[in-house]
Design a protein that fits this description.
The protein is an alpha/beta fold. It is 26% helix and 27% strand. It contains five helices and eight strands; from the N terminus they run αβαββαβαβββαβ. The protein has a five-stranded mixed β-sheet with strand order 4-2-3-5-8. Strands 1-7-6 form a three-stranded antiparallel β-sheet. A hairpin with a 6-residue loop joins strand 6 and strand 7. It starts with a helix and ends with a strand.
């Protein structure tokens, strides 16, 4: 799904969302330069694989969070982790670097990516800001709706403690 297909999907499913179109952003520093509503709901996404490239993970955390991959590995019983390549990102999620988003999981036809989301996003206001499979816009959704979208698609979802 591309950006327009994401918008149509959200509308067709009657999922509340807010959209802001903006210049392309490729990292959290560039994203912080854009004046967006609800800045506390901004998410950072890490697309990872294990050392055998058999298991893939999408971690969605607060935009200002640092992720301790060793701790994540210990907490979740994974093999050693590293960032997936741009080629893997494109092949599996049909995304480019800078546009990584949980909505990209809708392109994971094999449901091979495990989705981990920070519990922070379930607290008030209970919304999350992510890209709609394109880094030229931000879409806000209720966190519970996002989790349901991913679950319905067939990807495993786990809540991470902040």
């Amino acid at each position: 799904m591309d950006k327009q297909e994401i918008y149509r999907y959200l509308s067709a499913k009657n999922i509340w969302h807010e959209i802001v179109e903006h210049k392309a952003v490729y990292n959290m520093v560039e994203a912080a330069e854009i004046d967006l509503p609800h800045p506390e709901t901004s998410a950072k996404n890490l697309f990872l694989h294990d050392d055998k490239k058999r298991n893939y993970y999408l971690l969605t955390v607060k935009s200002n969070s640092r992720v301790d991959l060793k701790k994540f590995r210990q907490d979740n019983g994974t093999r050693r982790l590293s960032f997936a390549s741009a080629a893997e990102l494109h092949t599996i999620l049909k995304l480019i670097p800078g546009a990584v988003t949980p909505l990209g999981l809708l392109n994971d036809e094999e449901h091979k990516v495990q989705f981990f989301i920070d519990e922070f996003f379930l607290h008030q206001p209970g919304i999350i800001a992510v890209h709609p499979n394109d880094n030229t816009a931000t879409v806000w959704l209720k966190t519970t709706d996002l989790i349901e979208i991913v679950t319905r698609h067939g990807n495993p979802v786990k809540i991470m403690k902040s």
